[in-house]
Design brief:
Helix content: 10-25%
Order of helices and strands: HEEEEEEEEEEEEHH
Largest sheet: 12 strands, antiparallel, barrel
Shape: globular
Oligomer: single chain
Distance between the termini: 54 Å
Radius of gyration: 17 Å
Structural class: alpha+beta
Number of domains: 1
Number of helices: 3
Strand order of the largest sheet: 1-2-3-4-5-6-7-8-9-10-11-12
């Protein structure tokens, strides 16, 4: 009986639908969710698509940003930021903030901006520091 129950739990874990990864502000309020490459706001409206090849497009398909290694470039190819380890910097090297290993996002002074669970550091940095809807919401 114990083995059957364990097998059931294991199967349930592997065959369950993947859960969307969430972004929350510093008070814990839901900002939005990732599901696959789609990022949707708290109401479910599609805002961005972040592809595996490093392009960020808005809901209409317009190129917003390119991710190339540690560099973030705008739609015309100009360097706008860089991420190295946990630090996120603008193009001139000024520290914008940090994305911690546990998903906490802090501004340059250490103030908690929000949390990201289950997302890559790069996705989190792009959304919190370079996408206007989220950047304006968390400041």
């Amino acid at each position: 009986m114990k083995t059957t129950f364990s097998l059931f739990i294991l199967l349930l874990f592997f065959w369950s639908e993947p859960k969307a990864q969430e972004l929350r502000d510093s008070s814990g309020k839901l900002i939005g969710r990732f599901s696959g490459s789609d990022y949707r706001d708290a109401s479910g409206k599609l805002l961005y698509r972040i592809s595996d090849v490093g392009t960020v497009r808005d809901a209409s398909g317009k190129l917003m940003l390119r991710i190339s290694g540690h560099d973030f470039r705008n739609n015309s190819g100009r360097l706008i930021g860089r991420m190295k380890k946990n630090d996120v910097r603008d193009a001139s090297g000024v520290l914008l903030g940090r994305v911690k290993d546990n998903g906490d996002v802090r501004d340059a002074s250490g103030k908690l901006l929000g949390r990201s669970r289950g997302n890559s550091k790069t996705q989190t940095a792009v959304l919190f520091f370079f996408m206007p809807e989220i950047k304006n919401y968390t400041r």
